[in-house]
UniProtKB/TrEMBL annotation:
Name of protein: Uncharacterized protein
Keyword Membrane: yes
Name of one Pfam family that matches: LysM1_NFP_LYK
Protein kinase domain ranges (all copies): 265-595
Annotated TM spans: 269-292
Ranges where the LysM domain occurs: 52-99, 180-224
Organism: Fraxinus pennsylvanica
């Protein structure tokens, strides 16, 4: 028995190497989030092109309506489903359609993010299990839309994280290039599904971590591994979709109907051994994880001095809890945006494809976005972040084009303020220090205190907005990506956050000089000619160089000691070696000294 037990444990340890994903047999309507309810992120890919299968139903029986539901182009559906231009309005009820999606990884689980305009009285369970046919669990919608409890009281935008997955290394070794998310219905069996896709049954079982005795159920999903862009064999038909699937009991769909009675007799014994091995493995893994958590966790903000004590209550756990109260977006109609901007009058343009507008009694900034995918990406971030130093997203519009509606920030960008002589004179030394501090607080929040953590990737003086009270707000989230917590392993650490640190160093130079700074530009080289921190403090010649670098509109009305301090901090942020740059945690502590 001990040898057999050891063998079972080894098998359990080895199996994930071949099957990263696991089939979730829980009910679509369940309000409990079971382990494995979502597909895990790929450690080597943050996003990928993938596909889902959607079946035409009552309100979605044309390609135009399906493309609208999934924010894609009708031409893409025609191409991937081998249809002609005459087919889009001639789709049969229950016909299976391939929908291309961008599968991304905002957290531990991969998803294709969409927005659904829910009507009055529709429950999240109905949206998940009827409209989206089990491609997302009801509990996932509840987690993503905590502000909605029960039925909708009015038209509301619902965030929908559809299940998807990217191929991992073991999939690629098998020649798999796509993992298609397939919603199971009716009398589907593994054999029918395999024949429909022309994929060996064993490959489907392996991709979903299924064993010989496992069963599959309607309103759950399977991942179908394909080597090429998927093609359906329409000669192999499943039963038509149930018009009200969530209300019916779900039958068990066996993987193999030829299980012998002898095998069934041995099933309990085998399961008992496996369960015992699993419990033992869980204890071992839990101990390892607890040890690793204590040793390597760098995601907590530990204020070590009195200057930073005011941040001590903002622990990541507390902020993570608060972030679950996600923001409610307003779904604007195109007509409302035209009225708000006087039909996008050029006199109201405040940037490239950005207009000032007024809706109701508030001023807003309306930005046209190139693609629905890009708009959804920004929405998925800003509906999870609510911070005084991050611009607030008020709503969106997905009609003839994609528009995002933000709070209007009165004084424009930091670059606008520094470039305008009148505004620059109003930017006193104290205000400039406060703005630098605000930016650092916002970046620190993104790097450490959100779940998932984010890297902005586009910090510059144009993406920093200044309020009428001269406080800073971070904007421009199109290139923002999620990241893991900073870890230290064998003396190394992930360097993605140092991109933002370097950009922050350039902003400090602009705050000091008033000039627009670019890496390797003239002003940047002038700064590098100023000696290092030690020499700067000891050499009067270096101090004179620093004075000539300072913004002349301040007319020497600034603290020279503070200017030296900021110059030293900027120099540290601009180190060529990313590992030598400070973290935003260090930057924030440093800035709090002179605030």
């Amino acid at each position: 028995m001990p040898k057999f037990l050891h063998f079972c444990i080894v098998i359990l340890l080895i199996r994930p190497a071949f099957s990263q994903q696991h089939y979730d047999n829980s009910k679509c309507t369940s309000e409990i989030q079971y382990p494995g309810s979502n597909y895990l992120c790929n450690a080597h890919k943050s996003s990928c092109q993938s596909f889902i299968v959607y079946r035409a139903q009552k309100h979605y029986q044309t390609l135009s309506s399906i493309s609208s539901l999934f924010n894609t182009n009708t031409s893409h559906l025609i191409s991937y489903n081998n249809m002609s231009q005459t087919d889009p309005n001639n789709i049969q009820h229950g016909q299976e359609i391939f929908v291309p999606v961008n599968c991304s990884c905002p957290d531990r689980f991969s998803e294709a993010f969409f927005l659904y305009n829910a009507s009055i009285g529709v429950s999240l369970s109905a949206i998940a299990c009827e409209v989206f046919e089990g491609l997302v669990k009801a509990q996932s919608l509840i987690e993503e839309n905590r502000e909605f409890q029960g039925g909708m009281q009015n038209f509301s935008l619902i965030r929908v994280p559809v299940k998807c997955a990217c191929v991992d290394t073991s999939d690629a070794r098998n020649g798999t290039n796509f993992l298609v998310t397939y919603p199971i219905i009716g009398n589907d069996t593994l054999d029918i599904i395999a024949n429909k896709f022309g994929v060996p049954q064993e490959m489907i079982s392996g991709a979903n971590g299924l064993g010989n005795f496992d069963a599959i159920f309607p309103l759950t999903t399977l991942l179908i591994p394909t080597k090429d862009v998927p093609i359906l064999n329409y000669d192999v038909m499943s039963s038509p979709p149930d018009p009200n699937p969530s209300s019916r009991p779900r039958p068990e769909v066996p993987l193999n109907n030829n299980i012998s009675s002898a095998k069934l007799k041995n099933l309990k014994a085998i399961l008992g051994v496996v369960i015992f091995g699993t419990v033992l493995l869980i204890f071992i893994v839990s101990g390892i994880l607890i040890f690793a958590q204590q040793k390597f966790d760098r995601c907590r903000f530990n204020a070590s001095s009195s200057q930073t004590s005011k941040f001590s209550d903002l622990s990541p756990d507390f902020l993570n809890y608060m972030s679950k109260f996600k923001l409610t977006l307003t779904c604007y109609k195109m007509e409302e945006l035209r009225d708000a901007t006087k039909d996008f009058d050029e006199s109201l343009a405040i940037g490239s494809a950005v207009y000032k507008g007024r809706t109701g009694d508030i001023d807003v900034a309306i930005e046209q976005i190139n693609s629905a995918e890009e708009a959804n990406h920004v929405i998925s971030i800003l509906t999870k972040i609510n911070h005084i130093n991050v611009v607030k997203l008020e709503g969106c519009c997905f009609e003839s084009s994609q528009y995002l509606v933000y709070e209007f920030v009165n004084n424009g960008s930091l670059r606008d303020c520094l470039s305008n002589l009148t505004m620059a004179k109003l930017l006193t030394w104290d205000k400039r220090i406060q703005i630098a501090f605000d930016i650092a607080v916002g970046l620190h929040y993104m790097h450490y205190c959100t779940r998932p953590n984010y890297v902005h990737h586009n910090i510059n003086s144009k993406s920093i907005l200044i309020t009428e009270n001269w406080r800073a707000k971070i904007s421009g989230f199109r290139r923002t990506r999620s990241r893991s917590c900073i870890e230290e392993t064998r003396g190394t650490r992930k360097i993605d956050t140092t991109i933002d640190v370097y950009a922050f160093g350039l902003i400090l130079l602009e705050v000091l000089s008033g000039k627009q700074i670019t890496a390797n530009g003239r002003s940047f080289k002038d700064f590098l000619e100023i000696l290092g921190c030690k020499e700067l403090q000891e050499s009067s010649k270096s101090l004179e160089k620093l004075k000539t670098f300072m913004d002349p509109v301040m007319e020497k009305d600034y603290s020279l000691e503070g200017a030296v301090f900021l110059a030293c901090l900027a120099k540290a942020c601009l180190q060529e070696d990313p590992f030598e740059r400070p973290s935003m945690n260090d930057v924030l502590k440093a800035l709090s000294i002179i605030l």
